[in-house]
């Protein structure tokens, strides 16, 4: 912990009691994403989410680290974690990237250090017990970029060992289910998701996780789980977006749009939801609404896929100069992506 003195009078948030955090509690992450190909300037971003069941991994001296499903961006590490009362309860330290066009928080993995450990000398390497070490090692492997099958297999073994040591930790089943899914073992992923619910029956995230693991022929079951998640947590954006996607595939477009609209009402700055709704309108050939949603994403945080997709729609509408401008912008964001070059050819 770095301490310093300053002549500037900084306004501080009130410190909350991180020992009293409960599973499914709403939290907020405040940080400044870094500047990269998808983010042209550094600015404050606040991301809403919920604590996961058994969200605190226990070290030998007590609580060690909290986990939540907020959507975060690289560069937000070091930002503060606020509880539902806006009080400071931790510092954000761990996240996995979720690219635009991906499902929003389904893949989000985030962790923070509770404030009561930061303000003490308890947070040391020696304070972490065997289960926590196994968990953190497995987590580090399973969120790497360019994941290999060897990484996933090693992570799976570590999660399994941790579960054998602590079989009633619901969080471990959630993360192992994710690894099973990435390995293509859908039945095992679903079994772990069901165990997550058995251990945390009042946690909305548990139902969202199982719904996400159902195969297409089981979408009716997924809808039941997503609906249960909305009953347990009426602010669960994951549930509305997930259910909306299934409704769209089943041709129930009014229900799908209602769920997307609800998601945006809950999180008006969630770029992933606008991306989903834009794709929905594009498929429905409602091009003006699709463009409006992609434009909203660009206003919030421009990225290559958004310009590329909006350019395709302009091309469909025969607005070729606008299409060309978007394709040029996409190439400017990432000149190495040759996939954009062929979009310019018919425009020219």
Secondary structure: elements and pairs:
Layout (H helix, E strand, L loop, with lengths): L25 E6 L13 E15 L2 E7 L11 E3 L5 E8 L14 E5 H4 L11 H13 L6 H17 L4 H13 L3 H14 L4 H10 L5 H14 L4 H13 L3 H14 L4 H13 L3 H14 L3 H13 L3 H14 L7 H7 L1
Antiparallel strand pairs: 1-2, 1-4, 2-3, 3-6, 4-5, 5-6
Structure description:
- The chain has 348 residues and is α+β, with helices and mostly antiparallel strands.
- It folds into four domains: 20-127, Beta Barrel (Thrombin, subunit H), CATH 2.40.10.10; 129-213, Alpha Horseshoe (Serine Threonine Protein Phosphatase 5, Tetratricopeptide repeat); 214-263, Tetratricopeptide repeat domain (Serine Threonine Protein Phosphatase 5, Tetratricopeptide repeat, Alpha Horseshoe), CATH 1.25.40.10; 268-348, Serine Threonine Protein Phosphatase 5, Tetratricopeptide repeat.
- It is built from 14 helices and six strands.
- The protein has a six-stranded antiparallel beta barrel.
- The longest helix has 17 residues, at 149-165.
- The N and C termini lie far apart (56 Å).
- Mean pLDDT is 80; it is low at 58-64, 97-107 and 121-128.
